[in-house]
Amino acid sequence: MADNSCAKCGACTSVCPVYQVTGQESLTARGRLHLLEKIADDNHSQAYLDIFSKCLLCDACHQVCPRAINLPTKVVESRLNFPKLTGHGSFAQSLVKGCLSHQGILAGIGKFLKISEPLLDKLPAKSGLRLKLGMPPSKHAPRIQQEKIIPKQSSLGGSTESVMFPGCLARHLNPNITFAATALISSLKDHSPPDIPPGQACCGLAFYSSGNLEEARQLARLNITAFAYTDAEIIVLCGSCYSHLASYPDLLADDSNWYPRAIAFVERLQESSSLLADQSPLPTVPICAPDRPAKKRVVYHDPCHLRYKPGLKKAPRQLLNSLPWVELVELPNGPQCCGSGGLFNLAHPDLAKQISGKLITDILAVDPDLVVTTCSGCLIQLHQQLTATGSQAKVRHLNEVLTDSAD
Questions:
Q1: Which helix H or strand E contains 370, and what residues bound it?
Q2: Is residue 3 part of a domain?
């Protein structure tokens, strides 16, 4: 696991959200790489385990590393050994316990999603949101069905140009996001309403982040199979889901049967904002919108998994600027991590709050009416942290905003 190519240049320290608030060298990419190089056995202390749990897996260090060292993959490999090293429950289980022990987190999430028991019952048996909401995964895992042509879930005539991967939040707990995206895509030239294959599962990011690679691989196979009935493009609504779905070839690299299928799957992925931004003109303004709507100040929050992809930074802003009622404002210190990190804010809520504090301070400084993003985890985290400050700014998914009037 050790990688001796680290030049100790310190580029990672300038972008690591954890280091920025703690100042601890051991929590930088080069600090962790040094530990991996020097300590090869499994007899690790709790301090060692703590160092590798305090990583957001935001990929910022990887993106700026002059030698392209992929530290997040090494952190996940370390977490894979956590159950053996600690002698008790898995890292994922510890995250759930952390969530349950901080009722403020659950209260904030519940208020944001307006959760009811029927909605929770709809969550798939293996959903990362179960961990996010403090619900242990169901013991009844979905199975990979024999590959066949499955019936389309929605078909209103015409040829289907695409299929959709909404993600757990948009599909099960906040379906307005899915409805909005469907309306937008259907309005595009030569596009029919996208199909939503019923066999799709959670993207698997939460399980991957916790070191549960077998579960993550199983979910990857489920999703590849669910979308195998067509070769249409796969439109993804959540930025973090999109990033993780794109990593399936790496996840299944050692599986000769599934690796080529993962490659073919990834080649079809399309992040929703980039698809919409490529269309001109985009009929996003509702008919009921006033001719001269009052301007609203809007901040777009870049999910960390998309921040280093120029096209995926530009597209959401292009779309928001197309709305006559939007005054798009940028943060004084640029894009920052919200502190969610998948399940990081459950394992380390105090540290996550420190990290989000810098972002929230900048958001409050520009006094927006609306904060917009495309990541489910960021939506929850931003709402919780902004609400705690008493801010009246609303937090919405980009697709919802694109179908709104100024009211």
A1: strand 370-373
A2: no
pTM: 0.81
Both tokens of 88, joined, read 């008790």
Q: What is the side-by-side strand order in the sheet with 296-300?
A: 326-329, 296-300, 370-373, 394-397
Contacts 24+ apart (CB under 8 A), 325-328: 325/289, 325/293, 325/294, 325/295, 325/296, 325/405, 325/406, 326/295, 326/296, 326/298, 327/295, 327/296, 327/297, 327/298, 328/298, 328/299, 328/300
Domain boundary among 42, 59, 88: 88
CATH number at residue 358: 3.40.50
In a domain? residue 368: yes
Residue 97 has pLDDT above 80, yes or no: no
User: For residue range 315-349, what is the model confidence (pLDDT) as tens digits?
Assistant: 999 999 989 899 999 999 999 999 988 778 877 88
Nearest-angstrom CA–CA distance, 338 and 354 = 10
Task: Tell me the one-letter amino acid at 397.
Answer: H
Q: Which of 160, 154, 240 is nearest to 205 (CA)?
A: 240
Euclidean distance between CA atoms 265 and 245, whole angstroms: 9
Q: Provide the sign of the torsion angle of the four alpha carbons 246, 249, 252, 258, taken in this order.
A: positive
Lowest-pLDDT choice from 82-91, 205-214, 293-302, 349-358: 82-91
What number of CA atoms fall less than 13 Å from residue 46's CA on the CB side?
A: 2
How many other C-beta atoms are found inside a 10 Å radius of the C-beta of residue 355? 26
Flag whether pLDDT at 146 surpasses 70: no
